[in-house]
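Hi U.,

Before I forget, here's the chain from the pilot set. I'm dumping it here mostly so it's searchable later in email.
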Amino acid sequence: MVRNKTANPQQITAEQLLREAMDRQEQEAKPPKQYIADEDELVMYKVRKRKEFEDVIRMQRQNVGAWCKYALWEASQQEFRRARSIFERVLHVEYQNISIWLKYVEMEMKNKFVNHARNIFDRVTQLLPRVDQFWYKYAYMEELLANYAGARGIFERWMEWEPDDNAWIQYVKFEERCKEVEKARRVMERYVNVRPTQEAFVRLCKFEEKHNNIARCRSGFEKGVELLGNELDEKFYMKFAQFEQRQKEMERAQAIYKLALDVLPKGASDELYRAYVSFEKQHGDRDAIEEVVLNKRRFIYEEAIKKNPRNYDVWFDYARLEESCGDVGRIREVYERAIANRPPVQQKRFWRRYIYLWIYYALFEELQTGDVSKARAVFDKLLLVVPHKQFSFAKIWKIYAEFEVRQLNLDRARRIFGRAIAECSKERIFLDYADLEMRLGNIDRCRKIYEKFLETHPHNPKAWSVYVDLEDSVGEVDRARGLCELAIQQERLDMPELVWKRFIDLEVSCEELERARAVWLRLLDKSNHVRVFIAYSEFEASTASSVPNAREALERGIKHFKAEQRADERAMLLEQWLKLERDLGDDAAIEAIEKRQPKRVKKRRAVQTEEGQAEAYEEYMDYVFPDDKPEQQNLKILEMAHAWKKRKLTQAAA
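Structure:
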């Protein structure tokens, strides 16, 4: 146990430790160099080394590296018969080891034993015919020895095993080096027959073009298209087209590009499409280029639709594309296919995008083709498709009615709105219908529409406001005032403050300030909200120019909230009063109100904890008003003292 764990005053670094460890390492002992003086010493050296090697391979028979070292050592001593014997012994142990055969044959070739090397190559190619490395080396050795017939025979024996592509290509290159083009052509044809792949046909065509045999090159491409068909990718067609471009056959190249774009899958022809566009830019006209671009975009949209036929954004883009082309038949086909994909569930959020397909279809028929009957049929079918009992869309009724108005068919537009009120009954329907009649100058029809609006939505303040606006706009102030009276007498209204405000604005617009003040007072009797007091004071100060009435309204509100002990609202009214005096009052009034402004203080109050046993305290902000009497403040302190004493007694009893 180390008891003293403090740092040593003499420290040492990791670098010093590593340096000392390296310095103290003992160097590995190297065997001394031996100098052989005579033949007897050489014989003894060989015997000793052979004994060492034999001991190693006897103990580790599967150690191929030891066998190879032994054989190569014998070869270095010019004992080639012994070296061959060792290689033969190890081949009996493991004849499938490629490295043994390679070292064996390299030894023979290095020491120029050509016939021995040939014998080894013949043996290994019979035992391991699928190892291409031996065939390559054998053929290369015969070619170096200028034994071209022997090399050709080796290649022929190799080709009987139908090796991979590189072997055939090497055979062809060998024949080309021998200036035997016809033999190379026959080898290439055999290669294509044995391995009919895209790469094989491309190599065949490249070979024929290299030797200026254009007809055979073209027939090679055509044969590849005929045999492989769907197995070809875009690179084959691109090479075919580029070959025709090099031969100045632009029409053939264009036909190849179009064939490839029709045959290949749309997602696997991006490079081909770019090559085609580049070709058309160089050799085609403007219409051909645009047609290429349009076809590509059509392919993209069709693929997206196949994945999700209810992706309405894709249908919108597809329809816009066809509209830009101007082919009416195609445009109608796209719209018909799009509207056939109805949403699977009857929920409004899934139908919002779908109905715009119908709307755009109808507008296209009306504005682009001028076929009014077709557009009307589209609208009628849309109204049948939408499940109005579950939900409806006000915009489709409005757009249909506006369509009939543009056709000067007002009776039909009114019938559409009437049907919309019966089946939809949305606020937007009433407003749009009334707006139409208002533009036509039919005030009585507008009144009937608004009355129906009030019957359908009696709790909607918008219904009352627009009716009042109508009567006010035509100068029927008494009718507007009567509507306001009816509205404020409703027992249930969603936002009654809007109706009260519209009543007051009506009286102010008619310069009936006394009536407006009476409405304000009725509102104050009905509602004691702080905003009402503030708005009334602003009305008296700015609109009625009666500052005393504004002060009276604020004082009334302050007394009310003081009685209800609502300090926040009371502080808001005092702040509003101070702002009023600063704008319209004199210095004395401002000073008096400033003295009444409350102070914010931080206080504590007792709260019950979650356990329900002991009490905790929380801090909160409160207002202290100078208007409150000191006796009331002291009374509050006494109440707090009694509560504290009661709490102490309870704790002592517990």
